[in-house]
Amino acid sequence: MKFLVLYVLHDESRLYDILDAWSEAGVGGITVLASTGVGRISKIAALREDMPIIPTLSDLLQNHEELLNRTLFSIVDGQELVDKIVEATEKVVGKLIDHNTGILAVLPVAQVYGLRQRSDEVSGG
Fold first, then answer.
1. At what angle do helices 15-25 and 79-93 cross, to 10 degrees?
2. Is the dihedral of CA 21, 26, 32, 35 positive or negative?
3. What angle do CA 98, 86, 41 make, to 5 degrees?
4. What domains can be seen in the chain, in order of their start residue?
5. Do residues 65 and 33 lie in contact, with contact meaning Cβ atoms separated by under 8 Å?
6. Least confident of 1-10, 28-37, 64-73
7. Residues 76-109 pLDDT 10s
8. Is the dihedral of CA 105, 68, 33, 27 positive or negative?
9. CA-based Rg of the chain, rounded to a whole angstrom?
10. Residue 58: band (very low, low, confident or very high) from pLDDT cuts 50, 70, 90
11. How many CB atoms lie within 10 A of CB 35?
């Protein structure tokens, strides 16, 4: 069975450590997005005097890169790999139950289109 693993990393300085740990655990492809939550948006809006009445996300995040999280996601094959990802993540950030270590979610995936396997990438398939 395939799973979608989503991880919201709160401490952006640990991004490369997480990417290395996931790769070492056996994750083939990882997508990283800049993201933020409502709490951080509220902080940003409170700090800005030039905020429009109805701001866009771009308005809110302008010059506030340091207030962004990083959201990592990957589609992986099997519970064993999911367990390795959780273990690898906790080695870098600490127990996920602890404050400010981020949020990791795992969802079953019914179908995937366009996903290449590691062996496909090596063989050029």
1. 150
2. negative
3. 55
4. 2-35+69-113 (3.30.70.120)
5. no
6. 64-73
7. 999 999 999 999 999 999 999 999 899 999 999 9
8. negative
9. 17
10. low
11. 13
